[in-house]
Amino acid sequence: MNSTWIILNPNAGTNDKSLIPDIESKAKQIRTSAGQNLFKTQYAGHASEITRKAIKQGVQKIIAVGGDGTVNEIAKELVHTKTALAIIPAGSGNGLARQLYIPMNRSRAWDAAVNNTPVAIDSLEINGKAFFCTAGFGFDAFVTHEFHNMPERGFMSYAKASMGSYFNFPDQSFEILSQGKELINTKAIGITIANAGQYGNNAWISPLSDITDGKAELVILKKLPSYLLPGFLYKLFQKKLSKDRYYQTIDMPKTFTIKTTCDYMHIDGEVVKVPEGENQYRVKILPKSLNIIPGKN
């Protein structure tokens, strides 16, 4: 049996036609037995199915080749297991890969995946769904929804989706509770639960967040006047956001509950349509629950 499996999403958010043949070649180089070690996903949820099979067979490492959605599908199955995750970024945001300083260059990312030592990072659950970077309600979730409906991916498409929605997006109501006590009751354009510091594309929504500290931060974003928006975006991408009257970060307890009537949420950049009538979300922090290979040790 091969101790390392590669799970490749052939439809990842990239136009690089060399991706598939390159990964096929690299998979052959690390094959240690006659068994299959490269698996291409064919439908939503397939990566999770392959991962569960790998765990049962005692596979030691899974190399995920794809974007944030593929990585989340695989990683959520690996929580509280001994199987390590490595990432070859092939998406448009690559949030977890960037957080872990995994190179965007495929060859260097592959070298890290094959040679580096796993570290244990935190994960979170929201109503039982695992995530590893960020989850959010309100504006960022709506923008993610619009972005996924655009014909092209990338930073410019994301910026277009953001600017096209910002000024008409209404404030949302949020109530945060822990152990039955109200912690926060506010109106805001959106909130983000941050395990990692960034959404992806080096957009650092919570620069001080650390995926190994056993904590999570809640970011509350109020609508800025138009003249402050360019400065906010500059700070977002320069990792320089700090607390002010429009932007606030709060250290959260190990478990807490969010009440809101938002229509959309996102989990690691994937949009989730909120079921009708659902307005309460329980968040739980799972310290040191995922073994993952960083870009550098």
Automatic annotation (TrEMBL):
State the GO CC annotations.
plasma membrane
Q: Entry's PROSITE patterns?
A: DAGK (PS50146)
Q: What are the recorded GO MF terms, alphabetically?
A: ATP binding; kinase activity
* InterPro entries assigned to the protein according to its UniProt record, in alphabetical order: ATP-NAD_kinase_N (IPR017438), Diacylglycerol_kinase_cat_dom (IPR001206), Lipid_Phosphate_FormReg (IPR050187), NAD/diacylglycerol_kinase_sf (IPR016064), YegS/DAGK_C (IPR045540)
> Where would one find coiled-coil regions in this protein?
none
Q: Which Pfam families match?
A: DAGK_cat, YegS_C
The region annotated as signal peptide is none
- Which keywords annotate this record? ATP-binding, Kinase, Nucleotide-binding, Transferase
Domain DAGKc as annotated: residue spans:
1-130
Protein's name according to its UniProt entry: DAGKc domain-containing protein
Q: State the organism of origin.
A: Marinigracilibium pacificum
